[in-house]
Amino acid sequence: NKKPSTLATDKGRINRHIKPLLGRRRVATLTQADVEQFLHDIASGKTATDVRTGPRGRAIVTGGKGTATRTVGLLGGILSFAVERGIRPDNPVRHARRFKDRQRDRMLSSEEIWRLIRMLSGPEAGNIHPYAIAQIRLLLLTGARKSEILTLRWSNVDFEKRMITLDDSKTGPKKI
């Protein structure tokens, strides 16, 4: 029950990290030590690459601790499926030591907000598309996620109640 964007991210992690490092290994032979080596290989940039994905697309893969930790999480899900199917007796990811996933909690300071508002209202704004300015203002006023504002439809806006209703957001249905 994953969203298309999550599936695309998972597919990228499988193609860019899991297959290159573990693709020739038999699932039944993987150990906790293999998983930890896999984690460190991704973190150190062993799978780093820069490839064209289409006429205007490009995948720049750098690795890093966050990527490594999230990829090992995906591998754990894959191996849980293997356990359910009887392909292996246990999941070696379960007890593997991972990097702490750094939670980002960055908010603009009051000074940064005022600078942004002044810039969006000043002469510099002449070079910015009016829709982009409106989207940035809506982000500032609502605290919504960028994807929620960029994919917003008029049918989600209730002008009388001054409310946005999102049927499907990252955290489920919500009202802003």
Could you list some keywords that capture this structure?
176 residues; mainly alpha; two-stranded antiparallel sheet
Q: Would you write up a description of this structure?
A:
The model has no long low-confidence stretch (mean pLDDT 91). A 3-stranded antiparallel beta sheet has the order 3-4-5, with no helix packed on it. The protein has a two-stranded antiparallel ribbon with strand order 1-2. A hairpin with a 4-residue loop joins strand 3 and strand 4 (163-166). The chain is built from 6 helices and 5 strands. Helix 2 (32-43) packs antiparallel against helix 3 (65-84). The chain is mostly helical.
| Percent range for β-strand residues | 5-15%
Within the largest sheet, what's the order of strands?
3-4-5
Q: What global shape is seen?
A: elongated
Helix fraction?
Answer: 40-55%
Structural class: mainly alpha
- Sheet with the most strands, sense and barrel status: 3 strands, antiparallel
**SSE sequence, one letter per element:** HHEEHHHHEEE
